[in-house]
Amino acid sequence: MQTVQFLNTREKKEIYKTLEEQFGSTEKLDYAFFQNSQDKIFFMSNDYAKLNTNGLRINNRGMYFATKERDGIRLSIEGAQLIKPTKNVIHLDKKQVELWMKGEDIPMEGSNGYVIIQHEKDILGCGMLKNNTLRNMVPKERRLHSITESSEE
């Protein structure tokens, strides 16, 4: 079983500061945060974190929120949806969304760094803008293999 470390108040403040710098988010999430040995950050309900789970067989604890990288925080899809970003948000058109959901990179100009991907009101996750390419961060198991055209055009 992988070791995890619950984050203290100072470490949580550091995450919130980074989220505000990167994405303009001032959202404070009322969860217990913990980090594994691969710098992945998860969170769970504060109530669950207080339970004694010794002797229970548990597959996963918490929900994957983000990964600490050298150049900032890379959010999971759910993490991007929770923080209410106000900056470094890229709005994609329908054609670009189709490419994104299939796991493809998209040519795009802009400043290098992690960005939130959005289509209309839907937040689709986090990507990396580097060298005029929006690098796709959608995990392979969550990518679409084909897209069915809707009747709404």
Question: Could you characterize the architecture of this molecule?
Answer:
With 153 residues, the chain is of the alpha+beta class. Helices cover 22% and strands 31% of the residues. It contains 4 helices and 10 strands. The strands form 2 sheets. Strands 1-2-3-4-5 form a 5-stranded antiparallel β-sheet. A 5-stranded mixed β-sheet has the order 6-8-9-10-7. The chain is globular, with a radius of gyration of 17 Å. The relative contact order is 0.14.
* Number of E-type strands: 10
The outline comes out as globular
Note the run of SSEs as H and E.
Answer: EHEEHEEHEHEEEE
- Amount of helix: 10-25%
**Sheet/helix structural class:** alpha+beta
- Any low-confidence stretches, pLDDT <50, length ≥5? none
Largest sheet properties: 5 strands, antiparallel
Please state roughly what percent of the residues sit in beta strands, choosing from under 5%, 5-15%, 15-25%, 25-35%, 35-45% or over 45%: 25-35%
Straight-line distance between termini:
49 Å
Average pLDDT score? 88
What's the structural domain tally? 2
What radius of gyration results from the CA coordinates? Answer: 17 Å
Q: Strand order within the widest sheet? A: 1-2-3-4-5
Number of helices: 4
